Amino acid sequence: MVVPAKTPALVRVLVVDDHEVAREALCDVVAATAGFELAGAVASGPEALEFVISVAPPQLVLLDVQMPGIDGLETARRIARLGRDVSVVLMSAQSFGPAFERGSLAVLYKGHVTPEWLSGHWGRRSTAA
Amino acid sequence: MLRYLDVTVVDGPDRVALRGPAATVPAWLTLSRLWGWVLLALLYYGSARFGYAFGFSGPIAAIVWLPVGVGAAFLTIGGLSFWPGALIGDLLADQYSAIPVWGAVGQTIGNLLEVVVIAFVVRQVMRRWSPLESLRGVAGMLAGICAGTAVSAIVGPLSLTASGALSIGSVPHVSWTWWLGDTCGGLLVVPLALAWSRRPRLQLKPRRALEAFAAVAVIGGLSWIAARGVTPAYLVFPILAIVAIRFGARGATTAVFFSVAVVVWGETDRHGHFAVNSFAPSVLKTQFFILVLAMSSLLMTALVAERGAALREMRASEIRAFTAAEAERRRMERDLHDGAQQRLLALAVRLGLNAREATTPTLQRFFAETQGQLRQAIDELRDLSHGIHPSVLSELGLADAARSLAGRSPIPVTLMELPTQPADPDSQAAAYYVLTETLANAQKHSGASAIRIRVRSDDASLSVTVEDNGIGGARESVGSGLMGTRQRVESRGGSFALESPSGVGTRITAVIPARVS
């Protein structure tokens, strides 16, 4: 009996950014990265929280720091409190310097989000897990 | 005559109805008003008796007629409806043994009109200006006092003439002396009462109390020496000016009253500076001295107060301008962040995606060069935006912004304390600029090997302290960053202190008023 090779499941990514042009560009990056699929794209913290507790939750959330209403930091805290198996990457249009990228709080410069970074980040996370 | 009120409760406990004989008691005749009449009558009568007892008031003339000030002040502060108290007080105070009854009655009518006119005018003035802290208010009050006392100075002597107590030829002279004495009384007491009737209540700290005590001692001493005729009474003027500057209306009016009391005592004792051969010229001189002293002090107080108010308004205006500028900077930074920066970032991301498809060396080089230029444009825009308003504050708050600065500093920075609660954006921006400027200063000039930062917040302020172990000797020169930082902090009503002893290091402390949430 020939057992068909199991296709590895795609990593579901949610993009959260209130700026439409940035959101669309990030969606393109996800779509262009092998092994990843776009679960959704929303423009605010509350929408992101709804998505995380939905029936088809994402495994990775690319989350903009500065958003009106509930900002990215607070949204990340609330996602963490939900206790779901979801990884959050905070992004900003600003570069805050090495302290932030090496310190306890990692904020990724949006310009660094590429297919290579996405694959690499997920690979490191999987190894760590 | 008052009767017992027949009170019936109707429609529940909150409503009462009055009926029967109680309707004969007018509504305006309240117990507090009656007490006010009694109190005013006693004060008026008491001040008149005080003048008679110490010999600076007589049945016709007085160096200072205090009751006019007492009555006018009471009606000004309490309301014109207390006039019966002044009437009763004046009837009690009249010296019926010295002047005919009808003369005394006319004199009383003049005195009553006098206090009512003064109170009416001063109350009208007070509706628009402060009678002590604005030049217009002082002018209005002086006009009211002069007008009111003129009424009494005309009615009183004419009544005495009609009753035969005074010859018609004496009327101009008596009216003049009368007016001066009453005006002196009004000028001494009305401002004094107005100054002390206002809030806030007196709060004298030990150092201020000592200063006040010294002023009282010097004024008392100079006035006493003048009263003995040793030195001119005008020596007290500079001290009164200082008191007006240091202690405002309360200090000035009290000091004038005290000084005049000592000088008048000397005059009535006939040894004072004004005591010359005849009584009348010396009285006139004393009265002119009192008028000049009181008016100068009142004008000085008003000038000082107006200057203080103008300074406060200027400071408030500076803060408003600074706040508006900060808001505009935040708006520009937000516009750059939301517009150009996002578009350029999206472009960079897409360019990166397409660069992967470039197969020929020419295309690869083109993409690499374009990406490099785009990255440079993004960096320049970010720096420009950061200069306008540090977006790190908007995104992460002051504490994380300070961590970011510390992380970028070439000299090791220890963060001793950071605020846990966010403050309002303007004060956070001011605190952030203190940090950036002082850190830049330390990095350029101090030669330090370590820097310590402490940012503390309480309910009303943000306190920023930056210390280094460098060579010290930092100075605020015109146009320097430190001078600019001081101006920025002080324009918000904060304080800025630089301690930089040579060879020891530098400590900069800025306290910025803030609304901490």
How is this structure best described in words?
With 129 residues, chain A is α/β, with parallel strands linked by helices. Chain A contains five helices and five strands. In chain A, strands 2-1-3-4-5 form a five-stranded parallel sheet, with helices on both faces. In chain A, 37% of the residues are buried. Chain B has three domains: 284 residues, no CATH class; 48 residues; 118 residues, 2-Layer Sandwich (Heat Shock Protein 90). In chain B, 39% of the residues are buried. At the A-B interface, helix 1 and helix 4 of A face helix 9, helix 10 and helix 11 of B.
Give a brief outline of the structure.
The complex is a heterodimer of chains A (129) and B (517). With 129 residues, chain A is α/β, with parallel strands linked by helices. In chain A, 40% of the residues lie in helices and 21% in strands.
- The average pLDDT score of chain A comes to 83
Q: So what's the overall shape of chain B?
A: elongated
- Computed over alpha carbons, the radius of gyration of chain A is 15 Å
Q: Helix/strand-derived class of chain A?
A: alpha/beta
Major sheet attributes of chain B: 5 strands, mixed
Rg value of chain B: 37 Å
Number of helices of chain A: 5
Q: How far do the termini of chain A sit from each other?
A: 34 Å
Described by its quaternary structure, the protein is heterodimer
Task: Report the count of strand segments of chain A.
Answer: 5
Share of residues in helices of chain B: 55-70%
- Helix- and strand-based class of chain B? alpha+beta
Overall pLDDT confidence of chain B: 83
Q: Low-confidence spans of chain A: pLDDT under 50, at least 5 residues? A: 98-104
What share of the residues of chain A does DSSP label as strand, in percent? 15-25%
Q: Tell me which protein chains meet in the greatest interface and how many residues each side has.
A: A-B, 30 and 29 residues
Summarize the helix and strand pattern of chain A as letters: EHEHEHEHEH
Strand content of chain B: 5-15%
User: Which word captures the global form of chain A?
Assistant: globular
**Tally of helical runs of chain B:** 13
